[in-house]
């Protein structure tokens, strides 16, 4: 599933080919995404020029003067820069066609993604109530500390709550908690400011290193049959239950917290 680093890598991959480009049409071959792709998407977006490609949480936002195209990659979506005449692959559901003869082609086998149109300045329900971006200055130790007072929820669930901070998926929550020496089940309200400062540093570090790694795949966004890679990184705990801790050698344990698997070291994480 594309996590925040993959979405940010996608943004960086497609932005140079999209910004400043005039949209001629949106070809929708299958409307059945997570929500139906609006019938009038092509008439809304057609003729508009993309002024910026932004990201908020895991949403990609293609801004134009007449509104914003909102794209979410869902569980299995990907975008490639193609020519509209290139051979279609299975699950190539949408082409965003540009006047210069190129298009952004959207492939999504599981169809959990979405393509929606937002009117200018209209707050969209999907984007309101979102917490700060994890790589912004608004996400800092003091913020998490204040926000967590009185909260009994396990720190891992608290950290993965999009109203607290967006885009910290299961992999990154596991890794950042390990690096910070914090047990995933510890009550969020019982963690000190000093430990929250460390946790924030580690969240930023694991996300930044994943984005840096994604940078090596940027050329995969142009042409070809391949899909942009969702990159594997060096992981300390995620997916390593039963294996030795890389810091102390103890066997890593696994538990379920709020439907998600947590992997942690009982010696290193308290
Ligand atoms: Zn350990």
TrEMBL record:
| Assigned protein family | Belongs to the FPG family.
Q: Which GO terms describe its molecular function?
A: 8-oxo-7,8-dihydroguanine DNA N-glycosylase activity; class I DNA-(apurinic or apyrimidinic site) endonuclease activity; damaged DNA binding; zinc ion binding
Q: Which InterPro entries match?
A: DNA_glyclase_Znf_dom_DNA_BS, FPG_cat, FPG_Glyclase, FPG_N, H2TH_FPG, Ribosomal_uS13-like_H2TH, Znf_DNA_glyclase/AP_lyase
- Binding note for cofactor: Binds 1 zinc ion per subunit.
Q: How does it assemble?
A: Monomer.
One Pfam family it belongs to = Fapy_DNA_glyco
Give the protein's function: Involved in base excision repair of DNA damaged by oxidation or by mutagenic agents. Acts as DNA glycosylase that recognizes and removes damaged bases. Has a preference for oxidized purines, such as 7,8-dihydro-8-oxoguanine (8-oxoG). Has AP (apurinic/apyrimidinic) lyase activity and introduces nicks in the DNA strand. Cleaves the DNA backbone by beta-delta elimination to generate a single-strand break at the site of the removed base with both 3'- and 5'-phosphates.
Q: CDD domains of this UniProt entry?
A: EcFpg-like_N
Where's the Formamidopyrimidine-DNA glycosylase catalytic domain? 2-113
Protein name per the record: Formamidopyrimidine-DNA glycosylase
Q: Where is the active site?
A: 2-3, 58, 260
The catalysed reaction is: Hydrolysis of DNA containing ring-opened 7-methylguanine residues, releasing 2,6-diamino-4-hydroxy-5-(N-methyl)formamidopyrimidine; 2'-deoxyribonucleotide-(2'-deoxyribose 5'-phosphate)-2'-deoxyribonucleotide-DNA = a 3'-end 2'-deoxyribonucleotide-(2,3-dehydro-2,3-deoxyribose 5'-phosphate)-DNA + a 5'-end 5'-phospho-2'-deoxyribonucleoside-DNA + H(+)
Names of required cofactors: Zn(2+)
Write the Enzyme Commission number(s) for this entry. Answer: 3.2.2.23, 4.2.99.18
Q: Name one GO biological process term.
A: base-excision repair
Which residues participate in DNA binding?
91, 110, 151
Gene for this protein?
A: mutM
UniProt KW ATP-binding keyword: no
Limits of the FPG-type domain: 236-270
Instruction: List keywords of the entry alphabetically.
Output: DNA damage, DNA repair, DNA-binding, Glycosidase, Hydrolase, Lyase, Metal-binding, Multifunctional enzyme, Zinc, Zinc-finger
Regions that span the bilayer: none
